[in-house]
Sequence to fold (355 residues):
Amino acid sequence: MSNLFEIILNFLTAAVFSFNGVYFLFFSKKKQVKPIFYFGLMWIFLAFYSLSENIAVLSNNTLFTIFSYSAILPCIIMFILSTDYVKFEKINPLKLVISSALGMLHLYFLLQPSSIKLLSINGKSEIIVDESLILTELALEIYLVTLFFLWTMSTYKRYSKQNKSLTNLFVIGGICIAPLYIFLYLLSDFSEDFLTFSSISLLIGTLLMNYVIIKEPKIFYFFPFTTYVINVLHLPSGNSLYEYQWTNTTIKGDTLSSCIHSLRNISFNIFKMGEVSELKLEKAVLIVRRSENFVVGLLTSNSSKYLIHRLNKFISEFEKKFKSELDASIIDTTNFNEADEMLADIFSNLPISTK
Fold:
């Protein structure tokens, strides 16, 4: 296949990567989810990598070759930050150790004076890259696509029962981006046509995953918790003002209200130790937060910094929206129905509801 086709294909891939980066960066600002910000940066670095490589080929400029070889490590770091923060709210140290070891070795070879040269071969200028640098670059690429594929499969496993058609497209895209891309890339040693095929596989896989994530953004979120029910209780009457269930569960609002009342009674009247903020059970956590006129209980499978941040935002917005009702001690639940829209907006990043 012609070099022109390969160059056009690579520029198109860089454009798609750039779109992904901009989309996820704006999306992270809108939803205030830091892992999505890192995910957007990963695509920006991938776009920089692809674009620099193309410009280096067209211009025979060794500086752009250095740029392209230096971009792979930030891609890996950003991907680890994005996926690990979503899943665990902390970074897996083993992943960082592997990334750092490969990255330092790669940078060592990259900084060698003879690693990238511009030579004249048969009257034609060509960029020659040291084999050690090529091998460490390949090792980093294999590591990145391995992490990407594992993330794809874990996401597929979680959401395949909720939307099988979309998750099937998602995993096909992941296969094209990860194992198929690397397999075809390795075959390019036998024929340069496989290099073009690998680029086509990468582009198709990226477009498929783009379609799925844009159509259902929540498929990206792999939060380490499941939310069950939230309940807002009026103080001091103790009446329930608002309740919402994310999943079908036997735990109802009345049960949760009674539990919150009991906890507050124990903490204030018996232990006299102040408010209860969390009650950890074997399979769930009850998060309790108090405002001036009400107390909120959120039952979830696990506590989370992100979840608490969203809960505090909900409390603040609830106070503002229903200030007149709360000041007048109105306890009719129909006056608080509009909280559904507020909750949907603030907790819009939660996994798909089965309410």
Residues 227-346 form a domain with the Beta-Lactamase fold (CATH 3.30.450.70). DSSP finds 13 helices and seven strands in the chain. The chain has a mean pLDDT of 84. The CA atoms of residues 313 and 346 lie 7 Å apart.
